[in-house]
Amino acid sequence: MTRGISLGLACAVLMAALGWADLAGRQEPVFEDLGRSGKKCWIAETHYFTWEFDKTPKMGTAILKIKLFDRAGKRTSDLAITGRSDMPSMRGAHDSGEVAFKLNKAGDYLLPVDVVMPGDWEVLLTFSRDGEAVFRGRVEFGV
After folding, report:
1. 100 to each of 7, 68, 82, how far by Cα in Å?
2. Architecture of the domain whose range is 31-142
3. CA dihedral 31, 35, 38, 44 (to 10 degrees)
4. Among 43, 58, 62, 65, which one is most buried in terms of CB atoms within 10 A?
C-alpha cells in the first residue's frame, strides 16, 4: 500500500511540475479559442500570430502553419511552439502527444496534423519562452 501511495504522490508532483495539476487540485491549463484562420491572435502585447492549414483538412495529413510577428509587425521566431492534436469527443483516442513545430526557411512554424477519422478535431497550441508558457490557444476544425 505504501508503494501505491508513493507512486500516486510522485505522479501528482510530476503533473504539478508540468503545469497540468497541482496538489491543491488545480485543473488543466486554459486554452483560448482562436477562431478563424488568418485572424491576428495577440500574445500579451509583445507578439501576434496568424494560423492556417496548407489545405482544407481532410483524411490524411494537413500542415498547420503559424506566422509569428513582433509588436511592430516584423516576422520573428523567438518563441517555441508546440502542438497537440486530438478529437475532443474521443479524448486520448487519437492524441498526438506534445509535438514541437518546425521552422521552415521562410520563418513559418509548421506542424503536421494526422487526421485519421472524420469528426471534430482540435490542436492545442503552447507558445513558450525559455521553457515558460506565455500563451495557450486552441484551433478547432472538422473533417
Report:
1. 29, 15, 4
2. Sandwich (2.60)
3. -40
4. 62
